[in-house]
């Protein structure tokens, strides 16, 4: 059994209006010193069997093409066996 965690976030140069809105709200609610907030999304994928070889390559490709938008987003993929 493998557990794959894919975290997706906007690239640093892409404007993040939702992050900015949260940053402003945090300040208004009393949390001082917040210099930046970036929003993102997370996918947790449970797989039967090990994640090796072609299967691992396919999952990495799908994370880059299906789960994220490569033009404006970066992703990280972590495997927990």
Please characterize this protein's 3D structure.
The chain has 81 residues and is of the alpha+beta class. The protein has one domain: Phosphoribosylformylglycinamidine synthase subunit PurS (Mth169, Chain: A), CATH 3.30.1280.10. 33% of the residues lie in helices and 31% in strands. It has helices at 17-28, 53-67; strands at 2-10, 40-47, 73-80. The chain has a three-stranded antiparallel sheet, covered by helices on one side. The longest helix has 15 residues, at 53-67. The chain starts with a strand and ends with a strand. The mean pLDDT is 96.
Shape: elongated
Total of DSSP H or I helical runs spanning 4+ residues: 2
Count of structural domains = 1
CATH class: Alpha Beta
Element pattern in H and E? EHEHE
Question: Could you say which structural class the secondary elements and strand pairing correspond to?
Answer: alpha+beta
Q: Summarize model confidence as the mean pLDDT.
A: 96
Helix content: 25-40%
Proportion in β-strands: 25-35%
What is the terminal separation in angstroms? 6 Å
The whole-angstrom Rg is 16 Å
The CATH H-level superfamily is Phosphoribosylformylglycinamidine synthase subunit PurS
Largest sheet: 3 strands, antiparallel
Q: Which fold name fills CATH's third level, the topology? A: Mth169, Chain: A
User: What CATH architecture label applies?
Assistant: 2-Layer Sandwich
